[in-house]
Amino acid sequence: MKTQKSMDYVSRFPEATRDWLDGRRIEEVECIIADFVGMSRGKAMPWATFVRTEHTFLPQSIFYQTISGDYVDMEIDNQWTESDMVLTPDYSTAVAAPWSDDIAIQVIHDVDDLKGNPIEVAPRNVLRRVLSFYAKEGWTPVIAPEIEFYLIKPNLDPSKPIEPPMGRTGRRVVSRQAYSMMAVDDYGAVIDVIYDYAEAIGVEIDTIIQEGGAGQIEINLVHGDPVRLADQVFFFKRLIREAALKNECFATFMAKPMQDEPGSAMHIHQSVLDRDGSNIFSDENGKETDLFFSFIAGQQRFIPNAISFFAPYVNSYRRFVAKGSAPINLEWGADNRTTGIRIPNSNAAARRVENRVVGMDANPYLALAASLACGYLGMKKGLEPRAALSGEAYEQPRALPRSLMGGLDLFDGAPGLAEIMGAEFCRVYKAIKRHEAEAFLEVISPWEREHLLLNV
To answer: Residue 177 pLDDT more than 80?
Structure first.
């Protein structure tokens, strides 16, 4: 039986979620936040428990954990006392978990300390912090992310190479025909489920295309508020994995899962509005503004320092090879997909800057925060970009580091980034990433055994 209190809670949910429920009784609620990886952490509870629970608690130590599950000792007072963070539901994020056997809802929570202050290391709070600098200038960023990923044959043995999945014809999907509708049809069953799940959570898909790799798909989302779009990518990564599992394959967001296939990116389209809702990248005559050029210059100047947010793992740097169609420099140009910074074709109102450096393995909150921070610094400092490049950029000098450790070394060269993104967060993030980079160096690879064992 529904109580008035229960109905009051449901009334706070987005319309799409209420439509999906269609009067059905909620059985389970997932109280979640994003960790440094961008994966869900939290607690699941019966609906009755959620309704009578004002706050949920999680230990802050979840942000001290690496991708492999190790915990990193840092110079933090009372680091291992497991102090609680206070989680408060953001009802505007309540969406279905349509793959669940139960009638289940996911709710992203705000993360504060016991005194009500935002936890600085929480990724969603990092993005909000960056947006607060824009707000002080009367600016409102608008972004649109592109989600690239691979569907692959289930890989149960990490020592074996990743393979494309089986297509509807009974043959392995090996098509590398970008924008091929036949290739999309080959894994249409997965895409159908993605559409169904997206409708259930109330997220509009702009387009779905076949990318350049075997079994590689790209999904574009409709532009909007950075926090809401980061929430959508956060939800979508789980949604896509569940749709793949339902069809007996895996979905992977690794930046470079297969040696001979291109990597997966999360290109970020960025524009900025003023208080009147006008695009600050265009003047009243539709021409480019100084702020537009300074935003580009900020991307050129600071993306190398922020690269560990765009390429957060050792595998991320395998994507930055010209033959893999990924950018290796930070030149910019109009409608030029070989540059790290592309200016897409658009009218003056939609003029935007596309950051093509970001990998799909990045945490969406941190990638958006870092990219917008780079542009902000460029505008505030009045930087000027290099001349626009015409022609292919792959022959230009490399501007990006070749390793995670190299990227982390560059981060210390831009203290302004740490000021905008938060000093405590940056200190913890760097410590986690350095630990991961060192752990990788302890692993002896098959290549080393094959070529060095008896030849040196």
So the answer is: no
When mean pLDDT is compared across 65-69, 213-217, 246-250, the lowest value belongs to 213-217
Among 117, 145, 175, which residue terminates a domain?
Answer: 117
Give tens-digit pLDDT for 184-197: 667 788 889 999 99
Q: Give residue 179's region: left, alpha or beta (phi > 0; psi -120 to 50).
A: left
Reduced to 3 states, what is the DSSP secondary structure of residue 49? helix
Does the CA dihedral 364-238-14-12 come out positive or negative? Answer: negative
CA angle 337, 341, 343 (to 5 degrees): 75
How many helices (H) does the chain have, and how many strands (E)? 14, 14
Tokens encoding 172: 């392995």
Confidence (pTM):
0.94
| In 161-244, beta strands by DSSP E | 205-210, 216-221
- Phi and psi for 39 in degrees, rounded to 5? -95, 160
Provide the token pair at 193.
Answer: 């489920």
pLDDT of residue 171: 62
Query: In this structure, which amino acid lies at residue 344?
Result: P
DSSP character for 38?
S
191 and 106 co-located in one domain: no
Is the CB of residue 26 less than 8 Å from the CB of residue 46?
no
Residue 146 in domain: yes
In a domain, 122, yes or no: no
Domain count along the chain? 2
Closest CA to 120 of 133, 111, 109: 111
- Is 150 found in the same domain as 174? yes
Task: Decide the pairing of beta strands 28-34 and 104-112.
Answer: parallel
Instruction: Say yes or no: 249 and 342 in one domain.
Output: yes
Query: Mean pLDDT over residues 320-347, rounded?
Result: 89
Q: Which domain holds residue 47?
A: 4-117
CB count in 10 Å sphere of residue 152: 22
Say whether 210 sits in a helix, a strand or coil.
strand
**At 64, which CATH number?**
3.10.20.70
Number of Cβ within a 10 Å radius of residue 120: 19
pLDDT of amino acid 1: 44
